[in-house]
Amino acid sequence: QVQLVESGGGLVQAGGSLRLSCAASGHTFSMYAMGWFRQAPGKGREIVASITGNADTIYYTNSVKGRFTISRDNAKNTVDLLMSSLKPEDTAIYYCAARPVVAGGYSYWGQGTQVTVSS
Known about the structure:
Shape: globular
Strand content: over 45%
Order of helices and strands: EEEEEEEEEEE
Low-confidence stretches: none
Largest sheet: 7 strands, mixed
Helix content: under 10%
C-alpha cells in the first residue's frame, strides 16, 4: 500500500509563489513515477507535471511551463512542486499521484491540497 500526503497549499496573490510537497510512504519511492494533478471548480482533473523515478524525464503541461518546477528527493521520499508567477487560473485542488515506473497508470493518490490565487 502506498500513502501520499500533500502539504503547502494556501492563499496567495497573483504573481506570488507556493511550494507544494508530497510525502510518500509504504513503497520503494524510486520505483514510482510521480505526478502533480489539479482540479479546478467545475473542471476535470488535469496533469500539471510529472517526473520519472530517477528524474531523467520531466513533463509540464503547456500552461505552467516556465512557471512551475517539479523535483523529487528519493532519499527523503518526497516530490515537490514549486509554483511561481501564479495566476488566478491556477486556483485548484492539487493532488500528487504515483504510478509504477514499469507499467500502469497513476494508481495511488493523495488527499489533495487547496491552492487559491487571488487577483
